[in-house]
Design goal:
alpha/beta, eight-stranded mixed sheet, seven-stranded mixed sheet, 12 helices, 18 strands
């Protein structure tokens, strides 16, 4: 019987496998895909992520010092920093690098297998898997669900589902003259959310957006707009979509069980980015499992320490980000234009660019600073007095 079975070979699952295998535990990672890291993602990570979880420099497409945000009415604000705040990376190979380290540490990988059923009892966890040819049942002392958003396994185990989510859709395009990240706002483009054009390598870029409804239709309109403006030349990889959680799972632990990463809703609600938070939570999960395995106590009571610790680390950021998300989502285009103009002309822009606390990974302090600025505060009240209540919860 194995010590740990990890379902999902994403950043969280691979890092847990690496950490625990390195401690001498027997770990098996199961993923339905045949290639590790093969998941839709824009691949932007902040400086803090790279510092804590280093990346081979060959996997970095661009160092991000510049981003342009364009309001619905056409006014743009250019955020230009002397320091690198984020990196555009080869997400697939970055995630695969964690799996490579886990394999070298002794972890077993079963790729191309789908998990059909999971059960836990006082003796062990049982995982039923199939590759559509054969069926197998694996046993382990503990189980980690790190298999991304949208799986029925958390519901099957009585942990419920993530309470709020959005759809992301993205295509790979040619954009030979693109020199920085472009963000587009507006209800005709990405209602309640935003669209992006992010340079990668060799004159290519990723064009995509987030939307609750009709994401594919909105992307088609965006691509037409970008072509007409001469920003992109052609689509080289057809659009694909995926689900992104905006709220954490109600409970992320159980008997012999932890839930980590997108499966747990450990994602930035502001941008939908999940790599860094997943890696941070995976460190907490690996430590909790190590202690529980040493004590031979895999009870829900023992593993509950994991949830307390990851929430202590991330909960404030997630809650502030979600409040900001709710505020932004109800704004009309003219109200967004008004806010953007205020940011561009009333010193907020300079404060954000020069502030060392303006982090790509930690948004809480920046959101609080922006919401507390006299211009923004008056604007939010002008837009809708109810929003002042939401803002104050930050």
């Amino acid at each position: 019987m194995r010590d740990v079975i990890v379902v999902g070979a994403g950043p969280a699952g691979n890092n847990i496998a690496y950490k625990l295998s390195g401690m001498g535990y027997s770990v098996t990672v199961i993923d339905r895909k045949n290639h590790v890291g093969d998941k839709l993602c824009t691949g932007i990570v902040g400086r803090a992520c790279i510092e804590q979880f280093p990346i081979d420099r060959s996997l970095v497409y661009k160092d991000a010092r510049y981003a342009r945000i364009t309001a619905p009415g056409g006014e743009s604000v250019d955020f230009i920093s002397q320091d690198v705040r984020a990196h555009v990376i080869d997400r697939v190979r970055y995630v695969s690098s964690f799996a490579d380290k886990a394999r070298r540490a002794g972890a077993e990988y079963l790729l191309g297998y789908r998990v059909t059923e999971i059960s836990t009892d006082r003796d062990c966890a049982r995982v039923h898997i199939t590759d559509d040819v054969e069926k197998r049942t694996l046993k382990s002392k503990s189980l980690v669900l790190a298999n991304g958003f949208g799986s029925e396994l958390t519901n099957q185990l009585g942990l419920g589902k993530v309470g709020d989510f959005v759809t992301g859709v993205q295509a790979e395009v040619t954009a030979p003259d693109l020199d920085g990240i472009q963000i587009y706002l507006g209800r005709d483009i990405a209602p309640g959310f935003f669209a992006w054009l992010v340079p990668t390598s060799e004159g290519k870029a990723l064009a995509g957006l987030l939307s609750r409804h009709h994401a594919q239709t909105h992307l088609e309109k965006l691509l037409l707009k970008l072509r007409a403006e001469g920003r992109i030349k052609s689509v080289v990889k057809e659009p694909a979509k995926w689900g992104i959680p905006l709220r954490p799972l109600g409970r992320t632990f159980g008997e012999r069980l932890l839930v980590v990463g997108d499966a747990a809703g450990q994602v930035k609600p502001t941008t939908g980015g999940g790599i860094y938070y997943a890696l941070l939570a995976s460190e907490v999960a690996a430590d909790a499992l190590h202690k529980a395995l040493l004590r031979n106590d895999l009870s829900a009571k023992e593993l509950g320490s994991y949830e307390k610790e990851w929430k202590s680390l991330l909960s404030r950021e997630v809650e502030i980000g979600y409040s900001a998300r709710r505020i932004f989502e109800v704004l009309r285009d003219r109200q967004i234009d008004f806010l953007m103009h205020g940011i561009a002309t009333n010193g907020i822009y300079k404060e954000l660019v020069e502030s060392r606390s303006a982090s790509f990974d930690w948004h809480g302090e920046v959101i609080t600073k922006v919401m507390g600025h006299p211009v923004v505060g008056k604007t939010v009240t002008f837009v809708n007095p109810f929003l002042t209540t939401l803002a104050s919860r930050s």
